Amino acid sequence: MFRLDQASLANLAPDIQKPVYDRAGIRPGIVHIGIGAFHRGHMAVYIDDVLERDPNWAIIGASIRRPDTRDALAPQDHLYSVSAKSGEGISTRVIGSIVDIIDASASTRALIARMAEPRIRIVSLTVTEKGYCHDPANGHLSTQHPDIVNDAIHPDTPRSVPAIIVAAAALRRAGGHGGLTVLSCDNLQGNGKIAKTTVLEFARLRDASLAEWIEANFSFPSTMVDRIVPAISDGDKQDVEQRLGLADAWPVVTEPFSQWVIEDHFAAGRPDLTAVSAQLVPDVEPFELMKLRMLNGSHSTMAYLGQLAGHRFVSDAVADETLKALVSTLMTHEVIPTLDVQGIDLFAYRDALLRRFANPALRHQLAQIAVDGSQKLPQRTVTPIRERLAHGKSIELLCLTLAGWIAYLARLVRQEGTEPADAMAARLADVVKGEGSASELVRKALSITEIFGDDMVNIEPVVQTVERHLACLQDEGVGAAIHKALARIDA
């Protein structure tokens, strides 16, 4: 079968949407670090629409860990397909907004040079929580992170994202090219603030005057991104080939829904994002909290308890009436009261999320969501627990999520003999290995200050509630633990 590329676009069926602009006439204005499936199914789609109106915002992608995306897409002229699937059907379009991909896994020099070019005005990021090399408990740069230690010694050949941005800033300053916007698209509360903090703190390690220049010439707007983009399967690839009539080595399968909320603070200009349905707002924090706590927090709850209950996909978990009741009640009673989003009906948003979770066409693996829980839980679960405690409110179901996480880690390490897929894998494995009681496990887990701060292990309402849930999960199973927790909410 022929492969998708620029020449083959003319052979696509009429129902396949393709770029309507002249790709030969577009010019890069964005460098995006972390050119994975989420970016290609979200931001790159918005920019594809932008290019119909303005040719100056094409994307240069970059991978700093693996060359696989470049290797897959370079023979396709960096074209790929995005298929939106639901119970009602499927729609497919070909995206042309990416014009080059840099493999920076061996050396970041070429990436830094491209970021320093005057025509580049935005550097966007989808590098996951761990890519910021920060302490999740306080948001500051982790100076003991191995990449940061290396980059402090070798600042001109950096490995970490903060140091790469600082190295590009140094070149821009030296060349008189001015600043740019660092646009984080990761699921982190205050993602722009964390990006700014880690970049400036690394810059101060290197050159205090450079840090001052970055602070004066760069901007770091926070964003909220929302689209479920599961890992691609072989079956998905076969379906895409049948629709395209062409081979696509790196397609994206996603849901129809997409949302992008951005603080309107750009240091060097921006595309007309409002024209392509992005929302530009003065403060993104309420939207961030809504999404992190309701969508992502529910995902984490299902990821751990759902896998313990024997489910593989999100749609399977929400089809389990017991798990669905837990997720719905968690959002209603313990999450929504922590939120205040003007103009948004949070109960309608809850119901929409439950419908999205139930999408039978979207095979979103719970194991994929479970990755890097140590980086995700502080924003999704731990901070809401603190806020609820401060107001004397129930933390029953939020603590059940923590108990599910601990039980899930214990099963991986004790029964399956594997370390969790997590930035703190060795540390977490050490916590749950052996034959400790529920009480011992909980106190050891809550003593991880990078996740829980240095005080949560001494907050008895949290410790006792998580202990009670973990003991029930161990002795009676997921269903019993959920039923007992829900009964306490109803009492």
Task: Give a quick summary of the entry.
This protein has 491 residues and is an alpha/beta fold. The protein has helices at 37-41, 43-50, 68-73, 109-115, 146-153, 161-175, 191-206, 208-217, 234-244, 285-308, 314-319, 321-335, 346-357, 366-370, 373-390, 396-415, 425-432, 438-446, 449-452, 460-476, 478-490, and strands at residues 28-33, 58-63, 80-86, 89-95, 98-103, 122-125, 181-184, 223-226, 252-254, 259-263, 279-281. Helix content is 48%, strand content 11%.
What would you say this structure looks like, in words?
With 491 residues, this protein is of the alpha/beta class. 48% of the residues lie in helices and 11% in strands. The strands form three sheets. A five-stranded parallel beta sheet has the order 5-2-1-6-7, with helices on both faces. A three-stranded mixed beta sheet has the order 4-3-9, sandwiched between helices. It has a three-stranded mixed beta sheet with strand order 8-10-11, covered by helices on one side. A hairpin with a 2-residue loop joins β3 and β4. α6 packs across α8 (208-217). The longest helix has 24 residues, at 285-308.
For the biggest β-sheet, the strand order reads: 5-2-1-6-7
Q: Strand content of the residues, in percent?
A: 5-15%
Task: Quote the distance from N terminus to C terminus.
Answer: 62 Å
Mean pLDDT: 95
Q: Detail the poorly predicted runs.
A: none
